[in-house]
């Protein structure tokens, strides 16, 4: 067989080789892209690789394009640090802070100034209810009691003809500050007074003797039942030795003749604290009402305590030596402004009554903050006067609970009790186990443990190896292409090259 020799130009030969190398390089790059794209998807699934802030971009529909790209970890949302105002920055008409244990005044401002008590009136109403009524007796809500309420005032939510226990009315009056519940209880108190003690005395002088020469006494037996209650309340006020107070109703709705002072209101609160059931009611953050003839199922309504220091006692500050915010009653009207009477327990075991009146209505939303500032100052001064640790825990540990007695949460709660005046000396006796602050059941938050972030090689070794191999192949192909091009350029100088086939 004769071998034929064919001659082609070196330029055409170089072009053929370049096309071959370019084709091979294109195929290699395409394969590289096919491998890299799924690997990138694997990286996107790693929460640490997305922590830099790369999140799914919302489309025109407003929904995330890829929910897996969202970083769900906490960014530190929560209650931020806040500063309680100093005592001189608190706006109020008067306040009175009283050490119930030592019977001494701690701090006060215009405590004998005439103020309107608003719903803090209900402190005395509940005390009288506990004095005259059986908490489990069934009471029927009257139309006259409902008619005595005013539109847009705070309500428990009862209706005329509803039959329910007095116990439920206690919570309905004190927690959501129900004026309807106060009126119902007032009528029952008047009825029970008449049944137990007979007619009201008719020789009681009028608060202001008439100028027209008419009798200076009044016959309260001719009053409505709510009017008779007011008369009974004023007799109790006189019995307690309070000379700067006079009540006209059981709920605190404004009346120019319905007034008190922060001192007198604190003393009414002091009297009411002698009733254990009063302490139970004012310390309850919430309450569920039982079924009755108008509401066929238990829990037909839940009410919450308007005393927000019960649920946020941290505002007082643990350095104030306040062991517990025990409970209290708020009051608000446009004329009276707002205020609160509250009981706190100091770490030294002293019981402190703080009564604040006349916070201007236009800053009523500052109520809790202002009360916390005054309570804080009173507890600090109480501790300074007797710096002996008698109560375990602090204001956070001794948060109150609203649960049945047989189902109280267990935990680190101090030995906080509310004493009667007769047991004052006993409550101040320190013991070996309660003197030392080291026994306090304070929960100290542990610092967060920071985990060291792993590098890319440690987290994805296979991925790194694959990428390294592919990168090496690409480099080699580029080098071979450069060498091939260099050879073609050299052959151009010879003009013609011989090709055998």
Task: Explain this structure.
The structure is a single chain. This protein is of the alpha+beta class. The protein has a domain at 116-208 and 219-258 and 287-305: DD-peptidase/beta-lactamase superfamily (Beta-lactamase, 3-Layer(aba) Sandwich). It has helices at 10-44, 122-132, 143-147, 166-174, 179-197, 225-239, 262-272, 276-282, 367-385, 424-427, 432-435, 456-459, 461-492, and strands spanning 5-9, 94-99, 104-109, 138-140, 163-165, 286-288, 302-304, 322-333, 337-346, 351-359, 496-500. Strands 3-2-10-9-8 form a 5-stranded antiparallel β-sheet, with helices on both faces. It has a two-stranded antiparallel ribbon with strand order 1-11. It has a two-stranded antiparallel ribbon with strand order 4-5. The longest helix is centred in the first third of the chain and has 35 residues, at 10-44. The model is unreliable at 47-60 and 430-451 (pLDDT under 50).
CATH topology heading of the domain at 116-208 and 219-258 and 287-305: Beta-lactamase
How much strand content do the residues show? 5-15%
Helix content: 25-40%
SSE string, helix = H, strand = E?
Answer: EHEEHEHEHHHHHEEEEEHHHHHE
Mean pLDDT, all residues: 81
Q: CATH H-level name of the domain at 116-208 and 219-258 and 287-305... which superfamily?
A: DD-peptidase/beta-lactamase superfamily
Shape: elongated
Which structural class matches the secondary elements? alpha+beta
Distance between the termini: 13 Å
The Rg value, from CA coordinates, equals 40 Å
Largest sheet: 5 strands, antiparallel
| Top CATH class of the domain at 116-208 and 219-258 and 287-305 | Alpha Beta
Query: Which regions contain 5 or more consecutive residues with pLDDT less than 50?
Result: 47-60, 430-451
Number of strands: 11
Separate helix tally: 13
CATH architecture of the domain at 116-208 and 219-258 and 287-305: 3-Layer(aba) Sandwich
Strand order of the largest sheet: 3-2-10-9-8
């Amino acid at each position: 067989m004769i071998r034929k020799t064919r001659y082609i130009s070196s330029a055409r030969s170089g072009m053929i080789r370049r096309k071959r190398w370019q084709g091979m390089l294109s195929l290699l790059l395409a394969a590289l892209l096919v491998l890299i794209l799924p690997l990138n998807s694997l990286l996107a699934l790693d929460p640490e690789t997305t922590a830099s802030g790369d999140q799914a971009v919302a489309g025109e529909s407003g929904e995330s394009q890829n929910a897996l790209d969202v970083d769900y970890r906490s960014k530190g949302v929560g209650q931020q640090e806040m500063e309680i105002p100093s005592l001189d920055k608190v706006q109020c008409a008067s306040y009175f802070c009283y050490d119930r244990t030592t019977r001494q005044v701690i701090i006060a401002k215009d405590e004998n100034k005439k103020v309107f008590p608003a719903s803090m009136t209900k402190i005395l109403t509940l005390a009288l209810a506990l004095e005259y009524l059986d908490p489990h007796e069934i009471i029927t809500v009257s139309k006259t009691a409902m008619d005595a309420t005013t539109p847009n005032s705070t309500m428990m939510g009862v209706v005329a003809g509803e039959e329910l226990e007095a116990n439920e009315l206690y919570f309905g009056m004190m927690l959501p500050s129900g004026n309807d519940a106060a009126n119902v209880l007032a009528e029952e108190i008047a009825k029970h007074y008449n049944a137990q003690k007979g007619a009201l005395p008719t020789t009681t002088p009028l608060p202001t003797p008439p100028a027209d020469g008419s009798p200076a006494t009044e016959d309260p037996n001719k009053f409505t039942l709510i009017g008779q209650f007011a008369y009974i309340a004023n007799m109790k006020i006189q019995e307690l030795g309070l000379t700067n107070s006079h009540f006209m109703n059981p709920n605190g709705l404004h009346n120019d003749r319905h007034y008190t002072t922060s001192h007198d209101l604190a003393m009414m609160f002091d009297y009411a604290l002698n009733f254990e059931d009063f302490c139970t009611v004012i310390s309850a953050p919430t309450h569920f009402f039982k079924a009755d003839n108008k509401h066929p199922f238990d829990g037909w309504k839940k009410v919450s305590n308007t005393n927000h220091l019960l649920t946020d006692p941290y505002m007082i500050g643990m350095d104030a030596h306040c062991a517990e915010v025990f409970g209290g009653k708020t009051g608000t009207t446009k004329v009276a402004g707002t205020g609160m009477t509250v009981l706190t327990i100091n770490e030294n075991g002293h019981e402190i009554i703080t009564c604040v009146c006349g916070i201007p209505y236009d800053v009523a939303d500052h109520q809790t903050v202002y009360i916390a500032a005054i309570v804080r100052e009173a507890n600090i001064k109480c501790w300074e006067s007797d710096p002996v640790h008698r109560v375990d825990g602090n204001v956070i540990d001794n948060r109150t609970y609203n649960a049945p007695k047989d189902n109280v949460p267990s935990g680190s709660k101090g030995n906080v009790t509310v004493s009667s005046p007769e047991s004052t000396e006993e409550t101040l006796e320190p013991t070996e186990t309660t003197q030392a602050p080291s026994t306090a059941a304070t929960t100290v938050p542990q610092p967060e443990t920071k985990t060291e972030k792993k590098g890319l090689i440690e987290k994805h070794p296979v991925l790194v190896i694959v990428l390294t191999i592919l990168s090496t192949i690409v480099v080699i192909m580029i080098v071979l292409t450069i060498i091939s091009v260099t050879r073609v350029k050299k052959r151009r100088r010879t003009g013609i090259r011989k090709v055998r086939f």
